[in-house]
Every structure is written in structure tokens, then in C-alpha cells.
Amino acid sequence: MKGLVLLVDDEPDAQRTYKDILESDGYSVLLASTGERAVEMIADHAPDVILLDVVLPGENGIEIARKLSGRTGTRDIPIVMITAMAELPSDSHVDE
């Protein structure tokens, strides 16, 4: 097993596609359809990387990334933002 990926996307087709690709390459995949659920799952599992959709119900992916980056237990988990959007909203800048 290559590692554990937490995939956060509210679109079932996108979840299925990413999950199939990652599992065929040897990764274990956990699925969450909201950012809030992802934060809960991280408490029980220690993913090696998080694939995080920008557009989610409730808190968006950028807000979740900020939250995780500010916590001691999660700040070192790499986060890869994913989206099907052609452009990001103008307020989506994430400070380093």
C-alpha cells in the first residue's frame, strides 16, 4: 500500500473517478463529501495527503484548508486543491 488519501468531493462521479485511479495505483482512499466530515475523519485516521475540492456544501475547500493548516495535528498534512471550475473566485487566495 502506497499511503492513505482523504478525498473530499461532493460529486459522486468525481469521487468514483478519483478513487478508482488512486486505488489502481495502490493507494487506500477515504471519502468525504463535506469539509466538516473530512475534519471529523482526520481525527480517526491519519491521511498521508488530502485531495480537497474547492466547491463544497457548507464550508468551502479553501476555508477547510485554512482550518487544517492552522491546527498542530493537521498542519503538516499536504493538501492538494482540486476543482472542475474554470476560474477560482476572486476571494479564494490562501495565505502562506
How would you portray this structure in words?
The protein is of the alpha/beta class. Helix content is 33%, strand content 20%. It has three helices and four strands, in the order E-H-E-H-E-H-E. The chain has a four-stranded parallel beta sheet with strand order 2-1-3-4, sandwiched between helices. Strand 1 (4-8), helix 1 and strand 2 (28-32) form a beta-alpha-beta unit. The longest helix has 13 residues, at 12-24. The protein is globular, with a radius of gyration of 13 Å. It starts with a strand and ends in a 14-residue tail after the last strand.
Which percent range fits the helix content? 25-40%
Shape assignment? globular
| Class from helix and strand fractions | alpha/beta
SSE series: EHEHEHE
Measured by DSSP, the beta-strand proportion falls in: 15-25%
What's the mean pLDDT score? 90
Number of E strands: 4
Strand order of the largest sheet: 2-1-3-4
* Low-pLDDT residue spans: none
Radius of gyration, in angstroms, nearest whole number: 13 Å
The termini sit apart by: 31 Å
Q: How would you sum up the major sheet?
A: 4 strands, parallel
